[in-house]
Design goal:
Layout (H helix, E strand, L loop, with lengths): L1 H9 L9 E4 L8 H12 L11 E4 L5 E6 L8 E7 L13 H8 L14 H6 L10 E4 L2 E7 L5 H16 L5 H32 L4 H4 L13 H11 L5 E7 L3 H12 L25 E4 L7 E8 L8 H25 L8 E7 L5 E8 L5 H17 L4 H20 L6 H13 L7 H11 L5 H13 L2 E7 L9 H12 L10
Parallel strand pairs: 3-7, 8-12
Antiparallel strand pairs: 1-5, 2-3, 4-6, 4-7, 5-6, 9-11, 9-12, 10-11
Amino acid sequence: MQRRHLAIALGLFIGAALPVAARALPGKAQRPGAARALRQAHAAPKSVNDWRPVVEGRLKNGMRYAILPRHANEPGIGLLMRVEGGFIAEQRPGERGLAHLIEHLVFTSPTTAAPYQLYRFPQIGLPLTFSAPTAGTTTWEESNYFVSTRTTKLADLDTLLSLYREVAGDMTLRADAVAEQRADVLREMGEKRYGNEIYARYVAAFAPGSPTDVIDSQNSDDVPTASIDTIRALYHRLYRPERMMIVVVGNVDPAKATALIRQRFENWQGTGPAPVWPPLPSFQPDRVAPISFSARQDGRMTALTGVTFALPAPAATRSLQIETTLMNMVFIRAVTDRLRLTQPDSQPGKTGAFIENGENGYGLILLWDNLAADHWRSGLATLKKTTCDLQTQGLSDAEWAAARQNIIGELEQRSATMAGAPNVELAKDLSHALAAGRALVPPNELLRHARAWFPTVNAEAGNRWWREKWRAGVEHVRLETPELAQIKDLQAEIRAVVDDAVRENPGCKLR
């Protein structure tokens, strides 16, 4: 979920995974009665902390599955199909934008089981599921398809699994379906281009060489002209059992759900030999410049400073993963609170801190300020001085204690409302966690661990952790505001502002 937080904080016009393309079920308009029923189910969550252990496994054909049994304040279950690949898999000439096009075709293409039926997936699946703004997304690393069922009936789950199985390997990619979705993809990407251009420049500055830098995720240049054979070739390279994961979350019997998954998917084999995929591109720290800027007249107004570091390995144990998560939460809260004190009258979210641990192929600590007009110098100076003070002085005992107490309060609230978390959102979180080699830890487990562990970690230990993390990265300062267009030597001006903010600590000056 942290990826969503970064998008909101930076004011980017993109979705939860960065970057991301989203797809609604064709013809699946919000029906007032159905939408109201789902909202009411989530409106008044009970205090039910009943996540049972995740059941996960791998079929003999290589396909993964995971089941999270739980009681929730909704009548059905969340079902998700994840396909590894995404924009990063568009590696052959003529494939730009085709992973997203295939995502659209999942909801429109006939299958070999019904070669004359356009919109087979929504026609059969729609009566069994609740309305939702989107039912599919494609990011740099995967495509996801997800629905919330109206009931927990095994027959409904089986029907939807059968639909997922059909689109996983048996789409015909009929010409009329492809032609219709070419236009839809181009329209959607045109609407997102501005925000994704902003994001692309930001990533190029902070994380050059990383997966989200080397892809041009919103480049759909080949969508209008790619042959159906080219589309089919990418479809069969990506949509294979060894690249697939099925996730079920809700009030289900894991043994019965597993049996249905096996029945539908175990005998499925991919088309052709399994391709050999090259290693993912990696962040190149030697390409990070000290300063970058944008003076676009239609751009945003924000100052950013932080450090980027190589993709961290997953924590070796569940306990270490929890403690890393809690330490990140404490520091985000403490640093954000300190920044807010510099602007006590500002709205929440104007300034803050963020820590990313590999969701986009690199690690990142970032502080930001969404600038007011004519305040870029003071905003940038405050960010730089804050990072310097954290390195040289660290958090005070009072700041550390307040942040820990606030995190306890946040986790208490999240634990009390666990039953209100939508099954389909947990399915997304679980798929991301398992793909990254992590566990999905429920809020009440985080709370128990925090209560026992926080008293053993004082401000000194926390500051030592922060310094080690900060010094492991490469620092970068980025400024985006139209006001910069009036300045002749931007590099020199920005450097002067930043270095003057830390003149009493020469070791904090930009390299």
